[in-house]
Amino acid sequence: MWIKILSPLGKGQEVPALSSPSVRLERVKELIIKEVLFFDSVEDLARFANIAAGGRPTGIYWAGGVAFLYYPLPLTTRLTASELIREGRLYWAMVCFSLMPDYRRVIETKEKIMVPVLDVSSCLMFKAVAEKLKELASELGSPPHHSPE
Q1: Which residues are CB-contacts of 81 (< 8 A; sequence separation ≥ 6)?
Q2: H or E element that contains 42
Q3: CA distance 20 to 51
Q4: How do the domains of the chain map onto residue ranges?
Q5: pLDDT category, 40, cuts 50, 70, 90?
Q6: How far apart are CA 142 and CA 132, in angstroms?
Q7: Rounded to whole angstroms, what are the CA distances from 75 to 52, 72, 108?
Q8: b/e 44-74 (16+ beta carbons within 10 angstroms → b)
Q9: Is the entire prediction scored with pTM above 0.70?
Q10: Element (H, E) at 73
Q11: Are 127 and 121 in contact (CB under 8 A)?
Q12: Within a 13 Å sphere around the CA of 21, how many CA atoms are in the beta-carbon half?
């Protein structure tokens, strides 16, 4: 099949039509989280997110009753890229989380820090992460509460 391309000068040129590439969804088979940091409130998680982002705009993810941030290991190393491609294995260096049973679009702290929350519950991987984090939260119990100084 041939298609006609019009140039800006109005002259047509015939070129072969390109076929669409095939698209295949290949899910992550395993996610390895190296460290977790559990906050007893989503407000503390929002404060942490704001500090970690250096005051720049940031967001928090939500799925299945858990609000979280994650820090992936970069795929720039040969090992992490190879593991993802060959084994379907993904590594996160750290996940920070708090239980948040009901989704809220924004978390606002008493200091008026406003952090948007993205509902990522339609992603199977994020749903699985939320379930694992809920298990961890029940094992860890409530973290010690530190009063503001």
Answers
A1: 75
A2: helix 42-52
A3: 45
A4: 29-140
A5: very high
A6: 16
A7: 21, 8, 33
A8: bbbbbbbeeeeeeebebbbbbbbbbbbeebe
A9: yes
A10: none
A11: yes
A12: 2
CB atoms within 10 A of CB 107: 24
Name the token pair of 144: 């010690």
Once rounded to an integer, what is the mean pLDDT over residues 134-148?
70
pLDDT in tens, 11-31: 656 656 678 888 888 888 999
- The whole-angstrom separation of Cα 137 and Cα 131 is 10
- Is residue 25 classed as helix, strand or coil in its secondary structure? coil
Per the listing, tokens 């929350």 go with: 117
Token look-up 């799925």 returns: 63
Return the amino acid letter for 112.
K
What confidence tens digit (pLDDT) does each residue in 66-123 have? 999 999 988 777 776 777 777 888 889 999 999 999 999 999 999 999 999 999 999 9
Q: Which two tokens stand for residue 127?
A: 């749903």
Q: Which of 144, 131, 13 is nearest to 64 (CA)?
A: 131
Question: What value, to the nearest 5°, has the Cα angle with vertex 29 and ends 32 and 36?
Answer: 20
